[in-house]
Amino acid sequence: MTEQTVAYAMGDVTARGFLVRDEALSGPRPGVLVVHDAFGCADYAKSRARQLAGLGFVALAADMFGEGKVAANFEEARPLIAGVGGPEVIRTRAAAALARLRAEPDVDPDRIAAIGYCFGGRTVLELAYSGAELAGVVSFHGGLTVPGDEDLTRIKAKILICHGDADPHVPPAAVRACLDGLVRAGADWQFVAYNVVHGFTHPGVGDDISRGVAYDAAADRRSWQAMRSFFDELFTAPTHP
Q1: Does residue 116 carry a pLDDT above 80?
Q2: Taking the model in full, what pTM does it have?
Q3: Overall average pLDDT of the 184-197 stretch
Q4: Which in 62, 75, 102, 215 has the greatest CB count within 10 A?
Q5: Do residues 203 and 82 lie in contact, with contact meaning Cβ atoms separated by under 8 Å?
Q6: What pLDDT, on the 0 to 100 scale, is given for residue 26?
Q7: DSSP letters of 145-214?
Q8: Angle at 78 between CA 73 and CA 80, to 5 degrees
Q9: Domains of the chain
Q10: Are 134 and 128 in contact (CB under 8 A)?
Q11: Over the stretch 92-101, which tens digit does the pLDDT of each residue have?
């Protein structure tokens, strides 16, 4: 695997993403944008990018906070998320990362997807709502925002949402509002719920479900497999010779 930190502009902010690929593969291949959780473009997001590269994709872990800023805990994360701002800034910064991935010479520009965790799950949905040229997006325990009226005719990407049904941060009303919006948009969407709380793919959050954030190995494995099946629909994943 080849790994590198790549700088790209998000307006007047410099982002420092993490790009990884398997150099043993040649020719155009699908690219996947990975959007981090509340902790920034840290070890977890990078580990997911490595996993995707191992499947034959070119993966870029975005840096939505800029300058490579990361948080060690939720207290440190709150001001970083607040510093990003509202949906328009989220969309603009995510679009900058997408453009950086698309510029890679071995990425097939017609076969690009985006995945995101927690804050990143919300981000990839906003990217889809913006009308970005993407084959599909996957949200893992993400914030489920509603497409605006102006978004209803924009959505091109297929959407997979992997959600914890016991997530206290995304109540049933928010889920219903998001899905109703996708129905109004005529979007191609799938929704998969697991009997778990928030953060179910992240081993680093621990397993105390009373906190409302906990890792669940089965839901992690199942949601990753759901993503892979979804990608099989979008494009044929490269395989090693």
Answers
A1: yes
A2: 0.95
A3: 98
A4: 62
A5: no
A6: 86
A7: ----GGGTTT--SEEEEEEETT-TTS-HHHHHHHHHHHHHHT--EEEEEES--BTTT-GGG-S-GGGTB-
A8: 100
A9: 2-234 (3.40.50.1820)
A10: yes
A11: 999 999 999 9
Distance of CA 217 to the CA centre of its chain: 19
The confidence score (pLDDT) of residue 223 equals: 98
Provide the token pair at 65: 């906070």
pLDDT tens digits, residue range 30-72? 999 999 999 999 999 999 999 999 999 999 999 999 999 999 9
Q: Which residues pair with 18 in a beta bridge?
A: 5, 61
> Residue 5 to residues 40, 85, 143, 179, 217: CA-CA distances in angstroms?
14, 24, 27, 36, 29
Please choose, from the candidates 203, 224, 229, 227, the residue with its C-alpha nearest in 3D space to the C-alpha of residue 214: 203
Distance from CA of residue 168 to its chain's centroid? 20
Tokens representing 233 are 């629909």
On the 0-12 / 13-18 / 19+ scale of CB atoms within 10 A, 207 is exposed
Question: How far apart (Å, rounded) are the C-alpha atoms in residues 10 and 141?
Answer: 25
Contact by Cβ (8 Å): 61, 18? yes
